[in-house]
Amino acid sequence: MVQSVFSNVASRYDLMNDAMSLYTHRLWKDDFVRHSLDPGRRGPLNVLDVAGGTGDIALRILDHAREKYADRETTVTMVDLNPEMLQEGRTRFKKTMYHNTPQIDFVVANAQELPEDTFPSDSADLYTIAFGIRNCTSIPDVLKSAYRVLKPGGVFACLEFSIPINPLFRRVYDDYSFSIIPLLGTILAGDRESYQYLVESIRKFPTQPEFAQMIRDAGFTTGEDKDGKGGAWRGLFGGIASIHTGVKV
Amino acid sequence: MSILARIPKSPTQLPRAALALQGRRHRSAPAYPGHIPLNAFENAFLAVGSGITALLNPRRGDMVAALGETTGQCALPGLLDKMLSSPEGRRVLKARPRVNTDTVSLPSLRALPANTFGNTYVSWLDRTGVTPDTRSQVHYINDPELAYVMQRYRECHDFYHTLFGFPVSVQYELALKVFEALHFGLPMAYMSALLGPLRVKSELKAMLLRDYVPWAMRVAAECKPLITVYWEERWEQDLGELKAELGAWDPPVEAKWGKKLTESDREAARRAKAAAAESAGDASV
């Protein structure tokens, strides 16, 4: 079902993201790459961008490493289950300077079972998954796969929707999600069901402490069970999105 | 009937329309297959959004349909009352007939004599390349009976084409929209009739205003309410006799026919493919 949802939304994905989040998803992704990841600070990285889709994170990683640290050796492998989304990513990258360079690569694969021949164990420095893990059927399998593929000292970073903590804000957010987003899907993309699915999948996702525990269960070391500095996650915009990080020791 | 007579004089004349737009927060269960319940705010949001999209991209048929449904709440109860006031209309509401190639047997209509309404309809379908299968489902009207009235209005559009002998080119569609706006009172029809001519070449616009609009205005006012007609009972009726009974008469100028549309061929190909896939599936079981 997830496959068909993303095949339907692939071509209008970026437009819909801009419309639904009123452009704020760009701010979240900028924050994620600049402050949580900061790629290139300690040398070139081998990055795995899973559920990379249309390439928002992959491009930001490469640009940040190049602009801030003059790093042209960082490589990103974009992984996605859906070939149409990956094709949109390829098209996006063709417009950049990374096209046909060893810095970017595209692979169709299932995040729950990354094949050992293409993704050997202990090979990646950084594993990122942005707005993708909630669509996976088995989150523990994704986390186990991530743990296998990361080198010791490697970082797991996940940017995902969460539920706002403030009850008043949560009420406004709920109204917006269930009223406006499916209607925006109907108007802009002619597809109500896919966006209804997206909104419901956010509600089904574990809470921030639960997800932090799942990351620890997979073997990662995280911060304490709190938001912000020293914590296992960092909330954005009052908790609409959260960045969870963990290190493989 | 004049437009002024349609404006309700007291709140008691409004109950059904008022019920149709509720200010609830929580989503109700669907009242019929394909129903997407919307509250008043969502209805307004979709009306504005679909209106803008339909203007910018008229090929988005789903947006045109959505605009009609979100703005139709005021006129539909009046149409329902007209149907309830006539014995034929009540029969339509009871049977709720639908018009598509599954419910209407086109081969049997082709076998009818040439002067009948049924044969004229199927000849019109063949000549224009239109198929009745491409009318969209109603989604955004909360009352199931009003939803049926909207569906019936949408599906009977081709019958009005047949009645007046109009092809599907833009000036005739606009003439029919003027007729429908004044006869049925639906806001969407008024919008199309007023905004549609903006996209049309000036000589066609002049032709429309000179030849068809005065005629459409008079026929709309004087003919029997077409929403009450049980068209499926009248396949064998002579077309001239039907027009006399309904009080409709032909426009003063003969219609000019253009190229055939591809939609009926495309729809037939799609059905053939679906049937082949199904039989292949059955064979493999």
Summarize the structure.
With about 250 residues, chain A is of the alpha/beta class.
Keywords:
heterodimer, A: about 250 residues, alpha/beta, Rossmann fold, 8-stranded mixed beta sheet, 9 helices, 8 strands, globular, B: about 280 residues, mainly alpha, 15 helices, transferase (chain A), 2-methoxy-6-polyprenyl-1,4-benzoquinol methylase, mitochondrial (chain A), mitochondrion inner membrane (chain A), S-adenosyl-L-methionine (chain A), 2-methoxy-6-polyprenyl-1,4-benzoquinol methyltransferase activity (chain A)
Describe the 3D structure.
Chain A contains nine helices and eight strands. With 249 residues, chain A is of the alpha/beta class. Chain A has one domain (25-164, 204-248): Rossmann fold (3-Layer(aba) Sandwich). Chain A has an eight-stranded mixed β-sheet, with helices on both faces. The longest helix of chain A has 23 residues, at 167-189. Chain A starts with a helix and ends with a strand. The model of chain A has no long low-confidence stretch (mean pLDDT 91). With 285 residues, chain B is mainly alpha-helical. Chain B contains 15 helices and no strands. Chain B has helices at 3-6, 15-20, 40-56, 61-71, 76-85, 87-95, 106-110, 117-128, 144-155, 157-164, 170-184, 187-195, 202-222, 239-246, 263-284. Residues 17-22 of chain B have low confidence and may be disordered. Chains A and B meet through α7 of A and α3 and α4 of B. Chain B: Pathway: Cofactor biosynthesis; ubiquinone biosynthesis. Chain B: GO terms for molecular function: 4-hydroxy-3-methoxy-5-polyprenylbenzoate decarboxylase activity; zinc ion binding. Chain B: Belongs to the COQ4 family.
